[in-house]
Amino acid sequence: MALMERKREKKGKGTDEKPAKQVSPAPREQGPVVTASTTKHRSLEETPGAQDIPESITTKHKPRSLVEAAAAVSSQDATDTDAPSLEMMTSPPNPSDLFLITKETSFVRPSNHEDSITVSEEQATKTVDDVDTEATEKSGDALAGVEYEDLIDIEKDILRVAKDSLKKKRYEADIGFEPFTPMVDKLLNDCIAKYHSQKGYSKEAIIETIKGLVDQKWIVTAERRTKDEVLETKLYQDIIKMLEEYPGTHARDDRVQELLGITRNPFLKHVLVLERFDLIKKRKFGKLWNFFALNFNEDDTIAELVVVLYNDIVRQLIQLLLKNPDLTLMELAESVIPPVYHGAIQYHLKKLEELGLVKPDGTRRVIDTDILQRYNAVVCDTLKIQEPIL
User: Are residues 259 and 282 in the same domain?
Assistant: First the structure.
């Protein structure tokens, strides 16, 4: 009996303690528990607009990040003017806001900044124009007598663009219009980009101008330069000057090395460039090409005679026959310096007869003075053959 009572008493004790453990604590009426973070935020209560801060900021429940704090602040309908500054303090910066802040507060634009920009652009434009003007004047001086000054403004402008466009190695230097070759497309696009808005040149006008420049050989296929660039090069100027003094020069002439300081192959390369641009003429006599300046307007007879008379022995034969038309082959062969075989004299005389300079008259050989005068009119003084004074 005593044992049963003790068990019953013990069981009663357990029943009494169990409900006691399930009783929840009374709700707090004194407000939230103040923590270190709460103390920190409570100091803001003294500042204007602190009453608009959500409880989540000042209570034990701390926001996960500054973004949540910013969202909490923005959810309030705060009317205090200081609230935006608080948002700026608690929220991460927005790149656009940073731009506005920098523009309004950090960056101070000088009062004359716009004026300085305008002046700089004007100076830059003036500099470009000055460079173009100087280039035009330089080209005009170098091209005097070759009709550069006769070109209109749009032609000169396109030539300036062509100087750069033609040097683009990624495009073949072929000029064609049906259809447009890549180089023509490149030149057209560059001209439109530079001059359409600046000077109002239309696409059609630019195309027609390019065609005209090609017809006049200011721009040619296989060349990465314009005619004015060629004529500004001293070596090309020297070649043209030499051909004016020595028309009919061929690559094997010793004068090429003496006057130009270049050998046969470079000379051929350069004269072919000049010939493409119609700056010189070429004629073939025998197996050799002979080159003439543009001012050489004589026919093939005089042209070939000029080439034949480059031989010093042939010029000596003409001088001897002018003095004495009765000289025989042997006498002529012994009189020239150095003496040569009479067969060589016979060969040269036959050629001169074909060209009309020497006319057989029985046993005599007479020189046609009219043809001789035409020859003397186109060669330099060192090559002229003077008639003897009777």
Answer: yes
β 364-367/358-361 pair status: antiparallel
Average pLDDT over residues 349-363: 94
- Identify the CATH number of the domain in which residue 305 sits: 1.10.10.10
List residues bridging with 358 in a β-sheet: 367
pLDDT at residue number 390? 57
pTM exceeding 0.85: no
Tens of pLDDT, residues 284-315:
999 999 999 999 999 999 999 999 999 999 99
Cis bond leading into 54, ω under 30°? no
What type of residue sits at position 380? C
Hey, which residues does 249 pair with through a beta bridge? Answer: 291
The residue type at 119: V
Domain stop point among 256, 277, 297: 297
358 domain-assigned: yes
Pairing relation of β-strands 288-293 and 364-367? Answer: unpaired
DSSP state letters, 261-319: ---HHHHHHHHHHHHHTTSEEEEEETTEEEEEETT----HHHHHHHHHTTSHHHHHHHH
Largest interatomic CA distance in the chain: 185
Between helices 234-245 and 264-276, what is the axis angle to 10°?
Answer: 90
